[in-house]
Amino acid sequence: MDVDLEILPGLSDRRAVVGWMVLAFLVTFLVTRFITRAIRTGRGPFRDASVGGVHVHHEVYGIFLLLGTGTLEFTYRPGPPWVQLLAVLFGAGAALTLDEFALWLHLEDVYWSRQGRSSIDAVLVALVVGGLLLVGANPFDADDAGSGLVLWITVGVNLLFALAAIAKGRVVLGVIGVFVPLVALVGAVRLARPGSFWAHRWYRSGSHRRARAEARFPAGRRTRWDALVDLFTVVPPRHAPAAPAPPS
């Protein structure tokens, strides 16, 4: 088997950068959740940050990190070790931003509410994508493609399958399917969830498909994904501030 040795260092460097980014993302997310829980329960020295009486959410720091690292990368295209540093800062910024995904989705502070679970969904999906990139899955890598036209047709069809899976409420299958075509096809042909865009658009009320979807996904049904999200969304009791001492 012939191996192009000139390609391997490039792939190795790319995966190393992705590895630093994913590691920084995971560590920042876990540390952020620990700090926010400590703030809510009143443990440790951590307190909410505020400027002029306005609470500053940690997604603000993440947005600035994303903007700064993106600007530096596109402007200077640094090599090692600076590219690894930018990858770490980008991963940290992405974690801070996605940890409050529910806030910028609902435009209100729902961090510890039921709607706040969407933040964990976003973080876990991002980790899935990072893991796939880390093992070398890349739908837009033309290194092994014999024909550019065939590659882009394949990518386009696969993206349509992935979008169909996401529209059916099969978000994880759709995201993984961007990198693994067979998974996208499975998600695209399976039954849509009742609350999904696909079901609202194509499953008429009273139709056989609507009945099948509601029977397959009854209200309150829980999945393994829900159990995984639960690990990070158990709401701790809010710390009650100490009552002021009575005057002597």
Task: Write up this protein.
The protein is mainly α. The protein has a domain at 1-137. The chain contains eleven helices and two strands, in the order H-E-E-H-H-H-H-H-H-H-H-H-H. It has helices at 7-41, 58-76, 82-98, 101-106, 117-134, 148-167, 171-179, 181-189, 197-202, 208-216, 224-233, and strands spanning 50-51, 54-55. It has a two-stranded antiparallel ribbon with strand order 1-2. Strand 1 (50-51) and strand 2 (54-55) form a beta hairpin. The termini are far apart.
Features:
single chain; 248 residues; mainly alpha; flat; disordered N terminus; Integral membrane protein; membrane; transmembrane; transmembrane helix
Range of helix content: 55-70%
How many distinct beta strands?
2
Beta-strand share of residues: under 5%
Taking all Cα atoms into account, the compactness measure Rg is 22 Å
Q: List the total number of helices.
A: 11
- Low-confidence segments, given as residue ranges, are 1-8
Instruction: Please state the structural category.
Output: mainly alpha
Q: What does the main sheet amount to?
A: 2 strands, antiparallel
Mean pLDDT across every amino acid position: 85
Shape summary: flat
Order of helices and strands: HEEHHHHHHHHHH
* Termini gap: 88 Å
Transmembrane segments: 17-35, 82-107, 119-137, 149-166, 171-192
Protein name: Integral membrane protein
Keywords: Membrane, Transmembrane, Transmembrane helix
